[in-house]
Design brief:
376 residues; mainly alpha; 434 Repressor (Amino-terminal Domain); 4% strand; elongated
């Protein structure tokens, strides 16, 4: 059997950002001894193996490389293959046992944290401090972003209210929408139905916004105005459904910028397809949306219309944020348009908007451009 002590000691020492001298000091040996271990010129005394393994939070078998394959088999067959078939009390017992047996298996650690934070909240007095320690270890030593996010999310289920953003900021891979899902899950677990519903409604809008932004940007019709017409008409139908326009007389204020851009894209496509009257119809719709939006004060909270989906969530004019009914603002970096659309700049642009070329010299187009300039 090939011993892996040299590779293991070097690996775990570097993960801890330790020098050979620092590790030697902890173990009470010379740094020359550590150097020899790592180069394979010698092995630690057998009595030192438990101390080295305990320091790195691993088993002796892991340290010498004797058990890597069998450990994976053990974890899969005797933990993950059976854990979901057990009661929550049995899951906790098994997770505690396997976390102790394999303290550097981050999947088990994340599983244990979620089990306690979601299903054993009555035992937080006993386990809360352990969860904090586990999370800190994972953030320091684990490189798997999914496991890191899972650990932070579990802590956010049990920490104090004013600590949530602190923990979320510990891991930069937490995107804004995932942060709000954490709040939603927390309040659901706590039984705070009002806050749960409020964050659920806001998340509904954020998810719809990103979905629409993705569809809007997925264009492959350059040089094909007929295809552009079909795409933009279908997209506007999606906007109508998302905004609830079919049940209202006018476009809700929070959706005006996105309708403005969608209408001017469709106008351009119609001009490219030599359907001028349709082009001017949608250019007029874009201008009307822009003029209506321009009258709204910056920072004003804007209705999203569809209360079935979004409750009382609102957007904030010219600010990439949504506002919850109790005043909290949530940032949003992706999705639909949330600020003024510069219609005049689009109409003047020759690059990317060549389908306007067929009407640029017409009086109707010139008059429309003059109206657009007044919006800025």
């Amino acid at each position: 059997m090939e011993l892996m002590i040299a590779e293991k000691i070097k690996k775990y020492r570097r993960e801890r950002d330790l020098t050979q001298e620092a590790l030697a000091s902890v173990l009470g040996v010379s740094f020359q001894s550590v150097s020899k271990w790592e180069t394979g010129d010698g092995y630690p005394d057998i009595t030192l193996l438990p101390s080295i393994a305990n320091y790195f939070g691993i088993t002796v078998d892991e340290l010498i490389g004797n058990d890597e394959i069998s450990a994976k088999d053990d974890v899969q067959k005797n933990y993950f293959d059976v854990v979901n078939k057990l009661s929550h009390d049995e899951r906790l017992e098994l997770a505690l046992k396997y976390n102790k047996k394999y303290p550097r298996n981050w999947h088990i650690a994340a599983s244990l944290m979620k089990e306690i934070s979601h299903h054993h909240r009555d035992k937080l007095g006993e386990y809360k401090e352990m969860l904090y320690v586990l999370c800190e270890r994972m953030l320091k030593e684990c490189t798997d972003s999914v496991m890191r996010r899972s650990a932070v999310a579990s802590i956010c289920m049990i920490c104090e209210e004013d600590e949530i953003n602190f923990w979320l900021s510990k891991d930069t891979s937490f995107w804004h929408e995932k942060r709000y899902e954490v709040f939603e899950e927390r309040y659901k677990l706590m039984g705070d139905n009002a806050k749960y519903a409020m964050f659920r409604d806001a998340n509904n809008f954020l998810c719809a916004s990103r979905m629409l932004g993705r569809i809007s940007a997925s264009r492959d019709y350059r040089g094909n105005p007929e295809k552009a017409v079909s795409h933009n008409k279908a997209y506007i139908a999606l906007l109508d459904a998302a905004s609830g326009l079919g049940e209202s007389i006018e476009i809700p204020e929070g959706w005006l910028p996105e309708y403005t851009l969608a209408y001017i894209r469709l106008a351009s496509a119609y001009f490219g397809a030599d359907e001028k009257e349709n082009g001017y119809e949608y250019l007029e719709k874009a201008l009307s949306c822009g003029e209506r939006y321009a009258k709204i004060a910056d920072g004003a909270e804007l209705s999203l219309g569809n209360k079935v989906f979004y409750g009382d969530t609102k957007t904030v004019k010219n600010k990439y944020a949504v506002s919850l009914p109790e005043g909290t603002e949530l940032l949003n970096l992706l999705g639909i348009r949330w600020a003024n659309v510069d219609i005049a700049n689009i109409m003047k642009s020759e690059k990317g908007w060549e389908w306007f070329d067929s009407v640029r010299a017409e009086k109707r187009y010139i008059n429309a451009l003059e109206r657009a300039r007044k919006l800025n």
